[in-house]
Structure formats: structure tokens, C-alpha cells
Design a protein that fits this description.
Radius of gyration: 19 Å
Number of domains: 1
Number of strands: 0
Number of helices: 8
Order of helices and strands: HHHHHHHH
Strand content: under 5%
Helix content: 55-70%
Oligomer: single chain
Largest sheet: none
């Protein structure tokens, strides 16, 4: 699954988990949790993609530690992490027992495929509805320091996409719009990136406003 689907499903699942646990996981973390297992791309060729970070033997203990250290917040974030394995196993396969075994499981619906397109763009639409319902949309419409953290998620998604394309000699422009299913997913990525960029700008506005206010209240030196 592409990063659009991973981040969208992790938002839905981690936010729903947080609601059940009565904790509000920040928007940027809810999106980032589903992307995090693909951080192995940063370490290629030293760490092969889709191996250690896609194994329940590795992610399981990590999630337990997060829940132990950060309690309910860690548990909600962990739900987003594990959603990555779920979504990848739907459209492809994962090695759940790596490095003990290379055995892979999954439905292999295909990437790209009509099923993958529905899962990714459908999740994005649900995120838009959920964001409007739970009030997270305010991080895009008004200045707030919390919005600045969206820069982390935006940078992660953009750099992972560029690195993966570069490592696999993929021409992003040609690939992104080469077929209808990919065009829909690509437009979804563009919409998501634009929203995260807008949120980052709102965060910068809040930060700069705070700096100006602090400068005005500081006593003038003799």
C-alpha cells in the first residue's frame, strides 16, 4: 500500500483507539504511526525494505514498550503502527515472523489495483469526514502551535516517496499518472501534502505571533 493509505488508515484506527481509551492522539502522530514502519527505506541498502519493520516479532515488542512507557497514548499510537501490517497484508504480503522465518502471508489484492485504490482513496475520504467531526480540522484553519508538528509527517511522507522512487529507478511523474487507479491515488497524495503544508503554515503563524508577542513584552535594556 502507498503512504496515502497507510497514513489514512492509521489515523482512523489510532484515533478510534484513542477515543475508546479516552486519550486524544495528536493528528500528526495519528498519521505518522502508519508511515513509521516504512522508515526502513531510510536505511537502504543496509536494511532491506519490508522485513524487520513489517514483522510482528519486531513491532509487537515495540508496541508493548510504547504502551508501557506512554500508557494510553502509546497504545493508541501502537494501533496505528500495527495498522500498517494489516493494510500491507491486504494488498500484498508481510513476513510476520521475520527474521525467524521468511514465510509471508497476505491476500495479495495488488498494488496498484482497483481494490488498493478503493482502500486508499476511501480511507482518505473517511479521514476528511472524521477530521470535520472531531475538530482536528481547526489545525488547518487557524494558527496553533500544535499544527507545526505536521511538518514532521509531511517531511516523512515526501522523503520516503522520493527515496523509494530513487532506489527503484521509478520516474514519479510518469508512474503517478500512468493509469486511472494511480492517478486517483496520486491526487490523494497531493491533497494530503497540501493539507499538511497548510497545517504547517498555521503552526508557523502561531509560532511567529508568539515570538513577536514575547519580544514586545521583554524589557528594553539600558
Amino acid at each position: 500500500m502507498f503512504l496515502l493509505g497507510h497514513s489514512s488508515w492509521s489515523y482512523l484506527i489510532s484515533k478510534a483507539t484513542g477515543q475508546k481509551l479516552h486519550v486524544n492522539l495528536p493528528l500528526y502522530l495519528a498519521l505518522l504511526s502508519g508511515v513509521a514502519p516504512d522508515f526502513d527505506i531510510y536505511f537502504q541498502p543496509y536494511l532491506q525494505h519490508h522485513t524487520y519493520t513489517h514483522s510482528i516479532l519486531i513491532l509487537g515488542p515495540v508496541c508493548i514498550l510504547l504502551a508501557y512507557k506512554y500508557k494510553r497514548l502509546g497504545a493508541a499510537f501502537s494501533a496505528g503502527l500495527l495498522s500498517h501490517l494489516l493494510t500491507d497484508s491486504l494488498v500484498g504480503n508481510i513476513p510476520p515472523f521475520y527474521p525467524v522465518s521468511d514465510y509471508a502471508v497476505g491476500l495479495n489484492l495488488g498494488v496498484p489495483s482497483p481494490a488498493d485504490t478503493i482502500l486508499e482513496t476511501g480511507a482518505l475520504l473517511l479521514v476528511v469526514v472524521y477530521v470535520l467531526k472531531n475538530g482536528d480540522f481547526q489545525q488547518f484553519t487557524r494558527p496553533g502551535k500544535d499544527s507545526l508538528s505536521m511538518a514532521v509527517t509531511l517531511a516523512s511522507i515526501v522523503t520516503l516517496t522520493l527515496l523509494f522512487a530513487g532506489d527503484n529507478n521509478i520516474s514519479l511523474t510518469a508512474f503517478a499518472f500512468s493509469r486511472r487507479a494511480l492517478t486517483l491515488i496520486s491526487l490523494g497524495h497531493i491533497f494530503q501534502a497540501a493539507a499538511l503544508a497548510l497545517g504547517t503554515v498555521q503552526g508557523l503563524r502561531a509560532y511567529l505571533a508568539t515570538e513577536r508577542s514575547t519580544a514586545k513584552t521583554e524589557p528594553v535594556g539600558m
